[in-house]
Automatic annotation (TrEMBL):
The lineage of its organism: Bacteria, Pseudomonadati, Bacteroidota, Sphingobacteriia, Sphingobacteriales. It comes from Hufsiella ginkgonis. Keywords: Cell membrane, Membrane, Transmembrane, Transmembrane helix, Transport. This is Bcr/CflA family efflux MFS transporter. It comes from the Bacteria. Signal peptide: none annotated.
């Protein structure tokens, strides 16, 4: 594969993985406007974000077996068409209940893009390059929090919140066209792959039994949930508590995203000297310390807007290391059933994200304490799982088990 072809494929896969972040980030500045228009509260509007996370989590389990049975592109096309139809429905929603429901459907369609992209990384690139490729995908995905909230803020101010879903519909149509024209089919359809519930469940269970998968998938997903907590809680924290405007919030969101994007690119450089295992362990340890300092100071009332921004920046910088390294390590054992593994990985990431973000919406937020406390909880749980799982993997590699794991790197 030529270098030009390499980066072109990364870019196309990056647009697929960016669809859901755009869908999440672009309408965030419109939460107060949506709440006023639909005669509800900002906290209730945030449930439309949680329903999107739930839709992604559930939908990926659907697409995983379909990707292994029919190849990568046909399920992708079906999902993107569902997304387009649901975006049109969101645009015309006249109640918060309808918006929450259609966001769920929109997510079920859109998640086909992300799960296909992860599976195709495993298909198209050598295992040793996967962490690097995932870091490069983050560079493309990282444009979302820089562009989407800012663009959404201007769109909502000029044309109303409905315009956001019109733009999302157009973006998805363009991604669908690009995938059809330039993305190769990377996996031959497997007629022998059963779509019956029993074999599908057995396939998912076999994936879960791999020590490398359950260690890095669960620790990475729970750590990554801290990002969803921030995304869900930040509109209330910044616009309600610190009283910034929707446009200013969009700018703040874009600036903070630099931490998340930058860490992915620093990760690419550090991979030349350190292993993914070393990087994810170090990043989670620092993330835990930052979260402890953040919560202690927030509870004591020490932090204003500027200090909150600085601590969120460093927290997101740490989170940015978990996605590429955890994804690469969790996917490394799989070839034949990479679609199912990718789906389960994505499901875990979104399921924990949905749960954590929903927790934020349950609180009557008058300070940043609930958001930061949940961020600390995710960091602590992820670190404990990683530390415990690493011992299990190490014991297998040293031959303590009767079946040493071939998946330790």
């Amino acid at each position: 594969m030529t270098k030009k072809r390499y980066y072109f494929l990364v870019f196309i896969l990056g647009t697929l993985t960016a669809l859901s972040p755009f869908s999440i980030d672009m309408y965030l500045p419109g939460f107060p406007v949506i709440a006023e228009d639909l005669h509800t509260t900002v906290a209730s509007v945030s449930l439309s974000l949680s329903s999107y996370f739930v839709g992604i989590a559930a939908g990926q389990l659907l697409y995983g077996p379909l990707l292994d049975r029919f190849g990568r592109k046909k399920p992708l096309y079906a999902g993107l068409l569902i997304y387009i139809a649901a975006s049109a429905a969101c645009m015309t929603a006249h109640s918060i209940g309808a918006l929450i429901a259609w966001r769920l459907v929109q997510a079920v369609g859109g998640c086909a893009a992300s799960v296909t992209a992860v599976a195709m990384v495993r298909d198209l690139f050598p295992v040793k390059d996967n962490a690097k490729v995932f870091s490069l995908l983050m560079l493309v995905v990282g444009t979302s929090p820089m562009i989407a909230p800012t663009a959404g803020g201007y769109l909502i101010t000029a044309y109303g919140w409905h315009s956001v879903f019109i733009l999302l519909l157009v973006i998805c149509a363009l991604i669908l066209a690009a995938a059809a024209l330039w993305l190769p089919e990377s996996y031959a359809p497997d007629p022998a792959f059963s779509l019956k519930p029993g074999p599908i469940l057995s396939g998912f269970l076999s994936v879960l039994k791999e020590p490398a998968f359950y260690t890095y998938a669960f620790s990475g997903a729970i750590a990554f949930a801290g990002l969803f907590v921030y995304v869900s809680g930040s509109p209330m924290v910044f616009m309600d508590i610190f009283s910034v405007s929707p446009k200013t919030y969009g700018i703040i969101f874009a600036v903070l995203s630099i931490g998340f994007i930058g860490s992915g690119q620093v990760n690419t450089l550090l991979l030349r000297k350190y292993t993914s295992e070393q990087l994810i362990f170090g990043a989670l340890a620092v993330q835990l310390v930052v979260a402890i300092v953040f919560l202690a100071g927030t509870m004591a009332g020490w932090y204003g807007l500027e200090a909150t921004l600085v601590l969120l920046f460093f927290y997101l910088f740490c989170v940015g290391f978990t996605f590429p390294n955890a994804s690469a390590l969790a996917m490394s054992p799989f070839t034949k059933n990479a679609g199912s593994a990718s789906a389960l990985l994505g499901c875990l990431q979104m399921a924990f994200g949905a749960f954590a973000s929903a927790m934020v919406g349950l609180f009557d937020v008058r300070s940043a304490v609930p958001m930061v406390a949940i961020m600390l909880g995710t960091s602590l749980a992820a670190f404990v799982i990683l530390a415990t799982g690493r011992k299990k993997i190490k014991s297998l590699s040293l031959g303590v088990s009767d079946q040493p794991s071939p998946y330790v790197h």
